[in-house]
Queue: 4 jobs
Job 1
Amino acid sequence: MQRSLTFNIFRHNPQDPASVPHMDTYRLDETDSMTLFIALHRLREEQDPSLKFDFCCRAGVCGSCAMVINGRPGLACHTKTRDLPDTITLLPLPVFRLVGDLAVDTGTWFRAMYQRTESWIHTRAEFDPAAQEARMENEVANAIYELDRCIECGCCVAACGTANLRPDFLAPAGFIRVARFAADPRDQRTDADFYEIIGSDEGIFGCMGLLACEDVCPKHLPLQNQLGYLRRKMGLTVLKKLLPFGG
Amino acid sequence: METDCIAPARPRSRADGWLDWVQMATGAALALFACMHMIFLSSVLFGAGALNGLSAVMDALHLETVGGVLIAIVFCVHATVAARKIPFKAAQAATAWRHARLLHHPETWAWVAQVGTAFILAVFITIHIWTGLTDLPVQALKSAVRVQHGGWFWVFLLVLPALALHLVIGAWRAGAKWGLITRENRADITRKGLYLLGGFLCLSLLTLLRFRLLPLE
C-alpha cells in the first residue's frame, strides 16, 4: 500500500539576517524505489523551490548529498524511503559551515584537512619525467586503494563525538587520509614525521573510540581498524622517544 | 568570509601521547584491582571466616596498607588524566548530550554513561578509600556494620552498578581505541563485555546482600 510520507526539514539561510532556524513540514506520496534524493527533488519541484540541498551524482560517488537522516548521517541518494518510518526528519550535517537548509560546505573543511595532513607523497627521489612509473605489488596497490575510496561526504565527521566537541579535531576522514599515505611505500615519511601530524589530542589521541564513524560510513571504509592501527603506531612512537636507542 | 573549517594544529609535544598511555594504563590497573577486590570481598559468601582469613593473610603481607595507598594514588592519577576528555563547559556538555540524543548510537550512549558514572565514582571511591584505609584490616563484621547502618546499603546499590558500567565500558573503549576490538571481532567482544557486566553485577550485588544479612553478633 502506498504510504504518505511526512518530511520535517531544517530551514535556515545564514546569509539572511532575518532568517530564523526552524523546521518545515512537507507531505509526499511514496513511489516504488523512492530514494531521499528523489523525494527532495520532488519536494523542490512540486512544493517549495526555495529548498536548498546539495546533489550531483545520485549514485553514492560524489558525497554531496550527505545529511542527517532521522538522527544518522547518511547519503540521500543511498537511502530508500521504504527503509524509513512514515515521518522523516532531515537536518544538515553538524561541524561543517551551513550554506542553507540541508546544504553544508564540506569543501573548506576537507581542503584544510588535506593541508594539515600534508596529503601528498613526500619523497626525496629525483623526478625523472622520462622514466617509467615505479612498479608496485598488486596487494599493496589494493591496500592503498581501499583507504583511498573516501568520497568526502563528511558523514564520519558529523557522527564523531570529538569532532562535534572541538573544531580542531582531525576526525576520521583525516586519519584515513594519513593511513593511506602511511601505507604507500613511495611516501618516505617516518612514524616520527606522522607523529608531528596526528600525535596529539587534536589528532589520534583525541579519538574516543565511539565508532560512530565506522557505523555511518556509506562506503564502509575500514575506519575502526585504521584508527586502532594509527593509535598503536603513534603510541609506540612516543614510547620509542623515551628510549635512548629509540630515536 | 568566516568559515567553520578545521582549526590549525598547535605545535606537537609528547605530552598528549604520554597522557593517553597513562590514562589507559591506570584505567586497566584500576579495572583489574576492582575485579580482584570484588572477588576478595565475595569470599564472604562462604562465611565471615573466609573473608577474615583472606584479610589476615593480606594484612600479614602488608598488601592492604601498601596496596591501598598505591591504588589511591593510581585512582587520583586516572581521575585527573581522564577528566581532560570530559566536556565540562556547559556549551560542550549540551553539544555532547544533543549529539548522543540525535545519533541513537549505542556506543555513543555508552560514553555518556561512562562520563556520568565517573562523577558518581569520583565522589564515592574517594570516601570509600578514606574509610577503608583508616579502618584496616578489612573484616566481615566491620563491613556488615557499615552496610547495615547509616544508609551505606543504598549508596552501594547505586555505586556498584555505576562501577560495573564504568569498568566494562572503559575496557571496551580502550580495546576499540587501541585496535584490540576490530571490525571482525566487535560483535563478539561486545557480547562478552555484556556477560562480564552481568557477572560483575551479580557477584557484587550478592556480596552486598550477604553483608546486609550477616549476623552482627
Job 2
Amino acid sequence: MAPIAAPFPSGPWFEELVARATADTAAMERLGIAEFRLGAEVVGASGARRLFGLEFDGYDITATGPTDEAAFAPDVVFSGSLEAWTEMIGWIEANGPADSAHSLNGLSIAGVPFQVRSSDAMGSDKFYRYMGTLQAVFDAASADAPVPAVAN
Amino acid sequence: MSLGLDLGYLERSARGEFDLGWLRNTDSEWGVRAVPSKTGLTLRDISIGSYGVIPEHAPRRTMAPRGSDIESDVPDMGYTVNDKAEVWSDNVLDLYEEAVSRQWSATRDIPWSELVPLDPDVEHAMCQLATVLSEVEMVAADFPAKWLWRINHDFVEAKMFLCTQVMDEARHTEVFRKRALANGGGLGRATAVIERFLQLILDAETYDEGSALMHLLGEGIVLSLFRAGAALAPSPVEQQIFRLCMQDEARHVAYGTMHLRYRLAKDPSMAADFHDYLDRGEEMIAMIFSTPEIVEPTAILAAGSVEAACALGAEAGDVLRHQIIGDYLKRCDHAGLDRRGRLHLPDAIIEGVPGAKAEVAA
C-alpha cells in the first residue's frame, strides 16, 4: 500500500488514515471499545496551530477534520511541531508499525517532541486506556500495517 | 437444619397442580424491553426503569438481583458494605463494558517469538522490573477479592467491575512472570519495603482506605511504570506487554479516581480521612522511590546500560518521577482532594514537580 496521497496535515489525510485503520473491521473490534476524542495538533514553524479531530465511539472511529479545541472539546490534545509529526509519520510509512521510540507514547512521555494536554486527569488517563487503539490508527499510515491481533 | 423442603409441593406438581405464584403474582417490573446500543446490549442499556435505580443504602443484605421480587424470608448474607457511596463511581458501568471488550491473553497476544537477546545487565534490569511488577500486581487482585464478598449485591455493577480487575491483575502477574523467565534471565529480588506497602493495602480497615491506597496511589504509580516500560521497550514483546497492561491499569485508576470523587461529593467531610490514608501511603511511596530494586532497573532501561545510568544519575529517572507525582496530583484534584502542598514526600522527590511543594501551591 502506498503512503497516504493527501498532504499532511489535512482533513483528507486523517480521513484516509481512519479508512485504512478501520478497513479490517473485525481486527479493529478485537482491540475493544473506546470512548474518546483526540485532538491531533500540528504546530507550524510560525507557531500557528491546526487541530484535527478523531472521535472514537464504541467500535467506530471518525476523522472530524480541521476543528478548533473549544468546539471539538477533546479529551486529550496530542500536540507536536510539523517537523515532529512528519518525522513520526515518515518513520511509520518507511518501517511499519511504530517501535517504542516512534510510538505515540514514546514520543510524548518526556514532553518532547510531543505533548499530551488535557483539561483533567480523566482525559489524560484515556490516552493510556486506549493506547493500543490509538497506535493502531496511526500505524495505518504504514505501507503494510496489520492491526495487532489482540483477540477476546 | 431445615431448608424448607415442601414435600407436598412435590406431590402436587407431580399431579400437574403447579403453584404459578411466580407467574401470576409478582411485584417486579414487567414489560421491560432494553434496546441494544451500537456496541451491543450494555449495562447502561439495561439500567432502565426500576432496574436502573440503585439505592443509596441497600435495604437488604441478600444476593437477590436488584429489582427482583424478593421473598421476605431470604437469609441475611452479612454484607458490611451497604452504602452505594462506599463503592460506586459514575463511570463503573462503562468501565465494566470496556474491561470485557479489551481483554487479552498473555499466552497468545504477546509476540513472544520476537524477543531479542539483551545485554546481560539490561536483561537483568528488565527481569528485576518484571519481578517487582509480578509481585505488586497480584495485590490489586487480592484487595478487590477480599472485599467483593462484603459488598452488597445491590451494587452488583461495581462488584462486576472489580471482578474484571481481579482477572486483569492475574494476567499482569502472569505476563511479567513469563517475561522474566523467557529471555535467559529469571526472577530478581523481592523487597521488604514493597511488601510493606502491599500489606498496607491488604490490611486496610475500610474499602475506602484500601481503594485510595491501591486504585489511586499504587496503581497510579504502576500506570506510570507501564507507560515508561512501553516507551523503553527493547523489543515488540515488551512494548506490547506494557501497552496492554497500561490500558488495563488506566481503567482501574479511572475507577479509583471517580470513586473518590463520588464518595467526597456525597460526604465532603470524609476528605480528612482520605488525606490521612494518603499521608500514610505516600510515606511508603517515599521509601519505594528510594528502593534500588525499582529505581535502578528503570534508570538502566532508560539509559541503556549501567554505566550510562550512573553517568546520568537522578536524571535517568526524572521523567518518571515527575510523571508519577504530577499525574497523581491531577487525579486527586479531579477527585476533589487537593494534595498540593501537603504531600508526604521528601523535597528531594518532589523537587521540580509543578504544584507539589507548599509554597508553590500557596
Job 3
Amino acid sequence: MSIIFLLIIIGVIVAGLFLAGFIWSVKSGQYEDSYSPSVRILFDDHKESGNTDTKPNENKNRDNKNKNNNSKDSN
Amino acid sequence: MGLPCIHCGEDCGKHPVMWNDKPFCCNGCKTVYQILNQNEMKQYYEIEKMPGIKVETHDVGDKYAFLDLDEVKEKLLDFSDSGTGKVTFFVPVIHCASCIWLLENLNTLHTGIIHSSVNFPKKEVYITFKEDEISLRQIAELLASIHYVPEITLDSLDKDKKGKSDKTLIIKIGITGFVLMNVMFYNIPEYLPGGEFLGKKFTEFFGWMSLILSIPVIAYCSNDYFLSAIKSLKHKIISIDLPIALGITTLFLQSAYDVISGTGIGYLDSLAGLVFFLLVGKWYQGKTYQALSFERDYKSYFPIAVTRINNGKEEVILLEKLQAGDHILVRNMELIPADSVIVKGDGNIDYSFVTGESLPVLKHSGDNVFAGGRQIGSAIELEINKEVEQSYLTQLWNQESSSEKSESKLNDLVNKISQYFTAIVLSIAAAAGIYWLFNDPSIALFAFTSVLIVACPCALALTVPFTFGSTMRQFGRKGFYLKKTEVIERLNKVTTIVFDKTGTITHSKAMKIEFIGDSLDEEKLLMIKSLVRHSTHPLSAALFQNIEGENFYEVNNYIEIPAMGISGEINGVKINIGSRKFVTGKDDNSESLKTEVFVYFSGKILGHFEMENRYREGLPEVIQSLKDKYDLHLITGDNESEKENLKSLFGDKATIRFNRSPTDKLEYIKKLKERGKTVLMIGDGLNDAGALNESDVGITIADDIYHFSPACDAILESKRFKDLHKFIKFTNTSLNIVKVSFLISFLYNVFGIYFAVAGLLTPVFAAILMPISSISVVAFATFSISFFSKSAFKE
C-alpha cells in the first residue's frame, strides 16, 4: 500500500510541472490573442519566398493549447 | 452599379481604373495591388475576398518625419539592441485573416524586417527589424503604402501597463484550479464508502497534502479579497468581500485545526472550489474590449510632432516642446495643435469634431484659430498663442476629477445587501454558538464556524459578475460596448437623458437635399455632379452622393475658391456652384438658417439647393419610447433652423437649447446633477467631451468604434442607434435577473445554515452544497440573460 504515497508524490510533481508550463505560457503572452493563431495555422507557406520566420511561432501556439488542457486534466 | 473593386470591394463606378484586366475603384487601391503582385503576395486576396482598405489621401509626404526624431524613437521602441529593434504599432483597420497574413509577411516586402506578428483583439502589430536597413519612419511609411495606416499619437508614447493585472488573474485561476483538482482527489476516499479501509495513516497524509497545497490559495490567490475587505473596513463600509474573506479564513483555520489535531480532513476542497469560482467570476466580469479605448483625452487626438519654422527652415519637433511664439506649418488635413493666429495663407478649418459644426470655417491671415480644428486645403503658417496644455479646448477636456466622484459614490446593490447579510450571518453564528455552549459545549465552536463557512456568499458574489458580464457581452454583440459592468447599473438609475444634435441624432455625413428654383433636368444634374466630383468640400461630397448618374462630363477650367464655391466649364457651358455671394454676387444677409448652395448656369441663376442634416434611422421610435419615462433634453451648438422639427419630435415636455458652447453643455449637465438628477449624456465629438465626463453615464455614438472617441462609459455603433431604448430597457431586465439570482442563493444559504446551526456540517456536505449553489446560480444568470436578450432585441 505504501507505494500509493510515492505515486501521489509523483502525481503532484507531474501536475506541478504542467502548472509551471501553464504559468509560463500565460506570462509569455500566449493567451492575449486567441484569434490570430486559429487563422495563422491555415495559411499556406509561400512557395516562392522562404518565410520560415513565422513557422516556429505557429508551433509554439499549437503546443501551448495542448498544454493548457493538460494542466487542468492531469489530475 | 459598376464592378466591385478587387482590392477593397467598393463600387468602381462607370470608369474603373483597370490594371491587368482587373477593376479598381481608385489609383490607391491599384497601387497596393501592384505592390503585392510584384512581391508575389497575391494570397492576400485569396484568404478573404476583397480584404483591402480604401484610403482617401495617398500622399504620405512628411507625415511620419517625426519618427526620425531620437526622442520619439526612444519612447516608441519596445526594445533596441545591437542593430535590432522591436516596435508595436496600433493599426485600427486590422479586421480579417488576410490582414493578419499580410502584416505577418511584411518581411517579403522589405528585407529589413525580420519578423512581424499581429495581436488581433488589440489590433496591434509587433515588428522586429534591422535598424541599419530600415528606419522607424520607413516602416510606418511601408504600412501606410499598403493602406494599413498605423495610428501613432501622444498617448501611445506613454506606455501602458494595462494587461498585467489580467495576467496575474489568469495565473491565480490556474493555480487555484490545480489545487482544487488535487485536493478533491485526496478527499474522495473520505466521502466514499470503503474509504475507511485505507487507514488513518492515509487520512493524515491526505490531510497534510491538502493543507500544504492550500497555502498558495490562501496566501496568494485570494489576497485580493482580504485586501479589499480590509480597505472597505477602513472606509467603514461593509462590502461583499468582507463575508467572503471571513468565510475563507474560517474555512482555512477550521481545516488546519482538523488536520493538525488529526480529527479529520477539513474543508479544503470547498475552500479551493470557492476561490476558484470567485476568480473565474472576476475574470468573466473583467473581460473587456481590448481594442476599444474609453479613457481618451486630447492626447490621443493630437499629433506627436509638428513642423516648426525656425529662421525660414522647416524642422520637426515634438508637440510638447512647442512654445508660445513659435511659428508652425499646418498642411492639408493636419490638426491645429494649440490656439494660434494665422500668419500666412488662408485657413479653411474644419471644426466638426470639436464643435459639432459640420461646415469648414474660412479664416484669413491675422485671424485667431482654436486648437482641435483641421485645416482643409493648402498649407498655412501659424503663430502659437498659448501652449498646448493651456488651449481653450484642451483645458475643457482635461476636467477629469468629477468622473471619479461618481465612481466612489456608487453604492451598488450587492454592497447594500451584504451589509445586512454580514450582520445577520454573524448574529446567527453567535446565536448558534451560544446555544450550543449551554447545551453541548463540545460542538459550540464548530457550530459557530460552520455557519460562517456555509454562509460564505459565494453564489451571491457570483451573481453580479455573471449576470452583468453576460449582459455586457450581449450588448457588445449588438454594437453597444460598455467600459465596465458597473455601467449597467448606473444606466438603470438614469432619470434624465441629454442628447447632442449634430452627429448624435443626425448623421454626420448624409444630408437631406432639396432644390428650390427652376426644376433641373437630368442632364443639368449630371453636369453638377461632374463638377462637384472635383471638390473635397463636405457639401460637394453630399451633392455628389445625392445625385444619381454615372456618365461624367469632362470639366475644363476648374477653379475652387475656399469658402466661396467652385466653377468650371462643361461643353462650353460655364457653371458656378457655391455660396450666395459667390453665385449671385450679393451678400449673404438672408434670414434663412439652412445651408444653401446656389447654382449658376451660363448667365442664369437657376436656384439653390437646401441642405439639412438627416436624422438617424429609428430616431422617432427611440424618442417615443423614452419620452414618458425620462426627462429629455437636447443641447446643441447649432442654430435654431430645425427648431420646429425637433419640437414635434421630442414633444412639449422636452427641453431644447440651441447655440451652446462645449462649456455650456458641461455647465448644463452640472446643473441637472445639482438638482438631483441622474444624467445620461449621449454625444459624439470632442465638443461633448466635458459633458460626457460630467454626466453619470456618458455614451458616445461612433461610426467607427476603433477611431477616436472622447472619454466615455460606453460606445454605441451609430447604426445601432435605433436600439438605444432597448439597451436602456434591458438593463432593467438584468437587474431583475440579479434579484432573482440573489433569492436563489439566499435559499441555498438558509438551507446550509439550517444544517450548520444543528452542528451537522460535514466536509462532504460542504463539498457538494457549495459548488452546486455556485454553478446553479451562474447557469441561471447566464442562460436567462441570453434568453431574454433574444426576445428584447428581436427585429
Job 4
Amino acid sequence: MKLNRRGLIYLGTLGVASAVAKNAFASQAKEVKVADLASISPLKPVSFNYPDEESPAILLDMGKTVYMGVGPKKSIVAYSSLCQHMGCPVNFDSKSRLLVCPCHISIYDPARGGMCVEGPAISRLPRIILKVKGNSIYAVGVSQGIIYGRSSNLGR
Amino acid sequence: MDRRDFLKSSLIGAGLLPLLTWEEAKAFSLDAELMPEDLELPPKDAQVFNLTCQYCMVQCGYKAYVWEPGKGRKVKGAYTTVLSGEWVHPYFINRVIKDGKEVFVAIVPDKDCVINQGDHSVRGGGNAKTLYTQRSPHVASKRLHYPMVRLKGKDSPLIRVSWDEAAEFIAERFTKIKQEHGPDALGMIFGDWLWTLPTYAILKFWFKGLGSSSYAGNGWFFDEESAGISAAFGSGTRSFTVEDFETTKLLVTAGTNLQANGSVWWHRFYLKNLSVGKAKHIDIDPCRTLQAQMAEKHGGLHLQIKPGTDPILAGALIRLVIEKDAYDKDFVRKYVSGFEKVVETVKDPKFSLDNASRATGIPKEKILKAVELMIENKGQSMFLHEKGLIHQMAAFEAQHAYAVLGIILGNVGKPGACTSRAGGHPKGTFAWPEEPPSREHNLNIYEGLERGKVKALWAYGCNIFKQLPSLTKYRPLMEKTFLVVSDRIHTEMDSAADVLLPAATWGETDLILASEDRRVRIIQGFMDPPGEAKPDWEHVVLVAKKMGIRGFDWKSPKDVWDEIRSQNDWIKEMDWDSLLKAGTNGLRYPMVNGKSPDRLYSDEMERIMGKRFFTKDNKIHVEKITVLKDFDPKKYEWGEVSSRYPLMAIDFRLNELWNTGYTYWDTPGVYERTPDAYLLINPVDAKARGISTGQWVVLESPYGKCKAVARVSDKVPPGVVAMPALFPKPEQEFNYATRPTPTTDGSVDTMVACEVYPL
C-alpha cells in the first residue's frame, strides 16, 4: 500500500482517534438509550442527559453525512449542551444549523465536531459518543473535553 | 464520516460557514480531540497568587492556584452551575516548574474581580496553555532560553553566550555606533503596553542613558494615538468605568469591535443590558461583524461606513443634532470652549445629510435614525472609538469629530455616559522621562532608517517584522541594522537579530499593568522562567551597567515601580504593599489622598482633584473641529484607488488572536477556528475576479503584498476587502502591504488601495 503525506495524516489520525475512544470508553463509561431511530427527524434536536441527570446533552440529525455522524446516513451527532465558556445551555438554530449560546454568543458547529467558531468559548463542545444498536441509538461515552461544571465525565 | 472524508467534504462545500481549504481543514485540530485526564482541582491549601490577564485592555482578574501533583481535589459529578465563574476548564490547568519542582497550576478567572466577575474571553481563557512547560514541546521549543549573539556579523550563526557576554557585546557596539554617528543612530521600538516596569526602564535608558531620541512604539510613529481626544479633554486617558456597560442606555462604537477585542466589556453590555432590552447599540464599522449583527438584532443600528469617511459622518451627525437644537445646552455652556467653531464648521455643504449619505454609503434613513437614538439617550450614552479611526490617514479628524459629537450631547463623566477611546492594550506607561531635544526634528524613526542614519535597533517586546507599517519597504532596512531583540519567543526576527535576549514573562516574574478603566494591579510571578530568561527591565540594567551609565541600580520590580510612581502624581500613593493588598481589584488612578474617581470628568473627579478636566483652563476644547473644513477623503487613501488598485483594504482584529499571535498556537480549540488568515471580499468583487471561498488569493497594494484564504461574504461592501491584523503565519501579514505614511495623529495607517487576485 502506497501512502502519500495526506494518507499518513489520515492513518495517524485514526490512531489518535481510536486511542481517544479507548480512553473515553475506559471502564466506567455507561450506556444510555437516547431515542429510537424512527423518532429522530432532521434538524429537530432531541434533549437527553449524559452521563447523569446533571449534564444535559443534545442529539441532532444534521440531515446529511457529518463528522463522526452515526445512523443510516451517518448524520446523527450529539454534544453536551452546556457552553464551554460559562455553562449556559446552547440552542440549535435550524436556519444556520449552528448551536448558539444565548449568554455571550459562543457559536458551535455540530457538523464540524462541535468546533467553536465564534465567541469566548475556548474549546469544542464535548462530543457524546453514539452507538446504534438495533433500531435505537445509545450514548456510550464522551470525547474531546470535559463537560461544563465537572472535573470528570464519569457519572455519579 | 471519518476524518478524511470530512476534510474532503469541507473542500467541496459541506460546511455552512465559509468553506475550509485543505490547509485549513488539516488544522481542524487533532489536539482538540484528545481526551484530558480527569482533572485535579485546586485543593483548599493551594498557594494563591493574584494576576490580571496577559492580554487586552479590559484586564480581567485571575487567580493562580499552585499545588503539588496528587494533592488536588477530585470531584464526582457536576460541582458548579451556570454562570457561577467557578468551573475549572481543562485548559485552565497546566503543569509547570516552580522552585525547581513540577507543580500543578490552575489559572482561573477571578469571580471576585469587579471587572470580569469570573468571566473570560477566548484569549484569556487560554492563559494557562501559554505557560512554559516541557510537557508541551510546542510551547517549550518556541521560547527563548538563553542569550544568543552573532559574533561575526549577519552571516555568522547565533551562538549561546552568558548574560555578561551578551551585555558586553551590545555595550561595545552601542558605544561605537554612538561615538561614530551620534546618539540618534541608536534606534528603539518597543511594545508600549509591556508590563509598565520594562517600558520605563527602556525609555529612561534611551532618553537619559544613551541620549537618543530615535524611537517608536508598536503601531505608531509618534504621539500616542489619542491626539483627537486629548485635544478636547487634555488627556487621552479612558474616562469610563466597567460598570457603565451595564447601565448605559446607548452604546455607540466607531472603529472598535468590543465583542472581539474587549470581550468581557461587551459580555456585560450584551447579557445585562442589550439582550434584555435595556439599551441599544449603534455600531459604525465597514464590516458587518457579529457585534454589528447583534446591535441590529436588538433594535440598534449597524452603520456600514465606507472606510475613511468617518469625519463626514460625524460632521453630519453633529450638524443634525445642532439643526434639531438638541445638543446639551447646559453642559456646553458650563464646560465647553469653542462650540461656535463647531456650528460654523458643520455648515459646510459636505456635512449635509445628502452628501454624507453619498460619501459614507450609509442610507439617509439610517443616519436619521442614529441621530434620533443619540438625542433620545443624550447624557446616557457611551461613545467609544479605537483603531478603526486611529489607523486611517485622517485619524485626528475622525477621532476629534466623534469626540465632539459625544461631548455636545453631554455624554461626559456620568453613569453610563462617556466620550472616550476604548483602548486596545492595557496601560503600560506611567512615567515618561524627558526626551532629548533632538526629538523635535527626529519624530520619524523610519525616515532615519531610510536615510541610513539609524545604525542599530533594539526591538523591545515588539515584533518589528510584523507590527510595523509598510514592511516590504522597512524590513530590509531594519535587517541591516545592528539588531538587538528582547522577546519571550523565537520569531521571524531571529533571522536578522545580532542579539537575542530571552525575556521572563507573565507568571514568571512580578509585573504591573493597568486596565483601561484605570485599575493598577500587580501580576504576581508564580513559576520559574525557562532557562536563563530574565524580565525585560533587567536586560536594560545589564547593558546600562556595562556602558557605565548610572541610575540603573534597581534590584527588584518594587525598586523600578517606586521610581516610576515618584514621577506621577496620579499613582504616587500606590506603594507596592498597598497594591499587593488590593489584589485583583487593584487601586485606581488618578488617586489623591487615598481617593480615586470612578469616572473622569465627573462631579466626583472635581471633588477629589479640584478640577474637572485636564486642560489648563478646566474646559473641554472643541475648537480643533475646524480641521474638518479641509477634510476630503480623496486627499488620503482613496486618492490611491485606481484601475490598477481598485479596491480598498482594511484590517480587523480576530477575537481569538492577541497582538502578533505569540501565543496563538498554544490553544488547540481556539486556533482551529482560523488556521490561516482570510480575506473578506464582497460577492460582486469576487465574481469579477473569479475568486471563490476557500481559494488562496494575493492582496497587492502599491506598497507590497500578502496572501490569505478568500471568504466571499457580504460582511464587507463592494469595493472593500478586509483581513485580520497580525496573523502569525509567514506571508499572511497585512503590514507587508500597508502605507508608509504617518496618519494625522502620528499613528500607522492600515487602510490601503489594492487589487486582489487568485494565487
